[in-house]
Structure formats: C-alpha cells, structure tokens
Automatic annotation (TrEMBL):
<feature type="region of interest" description="Disordered">
    <location>
        <begin position="22"/>
        <end position="46"/>
    </location>
</feature>
<dbReference type="Pfam" id="PF00386">
    <property type="entry name" value="C1q"/>
</dbReference>
<protein>
    <submittedName>
        <fullName>Complement C1q-like protein 4</fullName>
    </submittedName>
</protein>
<feature type="domain" description="C1q">
    <location>
        <begin position="105"/>
        <end position="239"/>
    </location>
</feature>
<dbReference type="InterPro" id="IPR050822">
    <property type="entry name" value="Cerebellin_Synaptic_Org"/>
</dbReference>
<feature type="compositionally biased region" description="Acidic residues">
    <location>
        <begin position="28"/>
        <end position="37"/>
    </location>
</feature>
<dbReference type="GO" id="GO:0005576">
    <property type="term" value="C:extracellular region"/>
</dbReference>
<dbReference type="InterPro" id="IPR001073">
    <property type="entry name" value="C1q_dom"/>
</dbReference>
<dbReference type="InterPro" id="IPR008983">
    <property type="entry name" value="Tumour_necrosis_fac-like_dom"/>
</dbReference>
<keyword id="KW-0732">Signal</keyword>
<feature type="signal peptide">
    <location>
        <begin position="1"/>
        <end position="21"/>
    </location>
</feature>
<keyword id="KW-0964">Secreted</keyword>
Length: 239
C-alpha cells in the first residue's frame, strides 16, 4: 500500500513539473528534481522496513512449515511402527485362537471303557473304597486314570456301570462327583450265583471335575477275565 502511494505521489510530481516547465523554465525544473529526491528518500525510508518485515515473516513461516513437516514425518513413522506392532499382535492372537480351537477339538473327543479286575472278589473292606478299574480298553482323550475320570472340558457327560456279585451278602456301589455322593445302588444276594445290576447317569461337568465309583464298607463285588464289572463314559457335547 505504501509503495503504491509513493508511486502516485511521483506521478503527480512529474505531471506538475511538466506543466511548470512549459511556463516557468529552469527554476521550476530544480524544484521538480528536489521533489523527486524527497520522494525517493521517503520511499526508501518507508518501503525498506516493510520488505524486511515481510521477508522475516516469510522466513518464520518457512521454519514453521519445516517443523510441521518433521512432525508429520515423525507421526507417520510412529503410526507405521504402531501398525506393524498391531499386525504382529493380531497375528499372535490368531495363532493362539487356532491353537485353542485345535486343542478344544482334540478335547471334545472323550470316551472310555474299563473293567474292574481279573482277581475275582473285591472286598469287603472296613471303609468305603475307591474302585480302581484296572483294565482299560478304551481311553480316547486320556481322561480316565486309575479309577478317576477327569473332565477335560465343560460339557454334558454320560456314564454307565455294571457290577457283578458272586457271593451271599451285599453288593453295591457309590457314584461320586468330586467329593459329592450323587448315587447309591445296592443289592442283597442270598445265593452264591452271578447277579448283576446296571445303572447310568448324565452329568453336566466343569473342566477338572472328577467322577469315580466307590465300594461301600462291608460290600463285595466280583470280576474276572470275562469283564463282568465295568465302568464307561463319554462326552455327549461340550458347553
């Protein structure tokens, strides 16, 4: 704005000096020269500081732009690093999920079938005694071990037992879930002939729950190579 104003003043001066030159001669030309010098001085004094201020302002803007660009580059690098880290975490999570799914598939195949003993009579004992069905014919999932079935996954399970008596007296069995007695079957035998009873139960179990059978005190069971007392079970479906 100041530069434009100065140019306007110069043009007005030139126009005035031209008119005076035609009528007044050399003395007026001196006045015009003095006016031009005065305007040049004023223009120099008023324009130069503005130019340097604008240059300084532009320089400051350039510095700010450089800082902004550096910040953007840093943010992009950080974003790329975070993205790479997130991709690794996602990949690891997917691998863990696949591993758990495969493990779950393996654990959902659960079934066992066992027989008691080849030794003949089992009992009587003075206290309740865990029945360790020692002849294992099927143990898919390896959930059965030394008389105890341990649920590998939460689910609904089916269990069945058959016991044999070959004596005069009591024959019976308890079914335990962990330390809880959930079933009791008993028979009285009056003659020394084979006698059997079978029962079954469907239970909802948590992973880690245990099922076992126990012989009540003073009761007797029988088994031999014919596998007449058996215990079996299977996972019906997981939950």
């Amino acid at each position: 704005m100041r530069v434009a104003f100065g140019l306007l003043v110069l043009l007005l001066g030139l126009c005035g000096s031209g008119a005076q030159g035609e009528s007044g001669g050399l003395g007026e030309e001196g006045e015009s020269s003095e006016l031009q010098e005065e305007w040049t001085q004023q223009t120099t004094n008023t324009t130069s500081p503005d130019i340097w201020a604008e240059i300084k302002e532009l320089r400051d803007m350039v510095v700010m732009l450089k800082v902004y660009v550096q910040m953007l580059q840093h943010d992009n690098s950080e974003m790329a690093r975070r993205l790479t880290s997130s991709e690794r975490e996602l990949l690891d999570s997917m691998k863990r999920i696949d591993k758990l799914e495969n493990l779950n598939k393996a654990n959902t195949k659960v079934a066992f079938y066992t027989a008691l003993t080849d030794a003949g009579y089992v009992g009587p004992f003075t206290t309740d005694t865990t029945l360790k069905f020692s002849k294992v014919f099927t143990n898919i999932g390896n959930a059965y071990n030394a008389g105890f079935f341990k649920a590998p996954v939460k689910g609904v399970y089916y269990f069945q037992f058959t016991v044999c008596g070959y004596h005069t007296g009591l024959m019976g069995v308890y079914v335990y879930k962990n330390n809880q007695k959930i079933m009791f079957n008993v028979e009285w035998k009056e003659d020394q002939l084979y006698k059997y009873f079978t029962n079954s139960v469907i239970l909802e179990l948590m992973a880690g729950d245990e099922i076992h059978l126990a012989l009540p005190a003073t009761h007797v069971l029988y088994d031999d190579g014919s596998n007449q007392s058996t215990f079996s079970g299977a996972l019906l479906f997981p939950l």
